[in-house]
Input
Amino acid sequence: MIPLNLWEHQNAVKTLYAKCVGKVCEKYQISRMELDILLFLANNPRYDTATDIVEIRYLSKSQVSGAIKLLEERGWIDKVYIGDNRKTAHLKICGGAAAVIADGKEAQEIFFEVLMRGFTQEEIERMKGYTARIWDNIDGCLKSGSQ
Output
């Protein structure tokens, strides 16, 4: 028996997040994938390639590639190549994306505020540790192919 009912409610968590960021997507006429990529790059500056996004977020290459292309067309991200390496494009956020990212981060803050309502800071810190351990278990299992 699973000790937590959280897993039964994961779709509700996703729905709440979609509701929080949906207004940002509507305001800027962008897809959730495009917003997710911008926020991922803004929140995780050391992970700046399409491969990083695919591997860390477990997203499909085709969806990420398509969203990156649209973000480039809008002038919100640029591909930068380091040295002679023309295979690995590093994604850099452009100034024109600042408002979108600010609004997206504000939506994320609202989402987390709703999730953490009523928890003490100590409880939140413990939960972060537990969540990190759960993620390590999931990631390790998915990458190794074993259970």
Remarks:
- The chain has two domains: 10-116, 119-147.
- The domain at 10-116 is CATH 1.10.10.10 (Arc Repressor Mutant, subunit A).
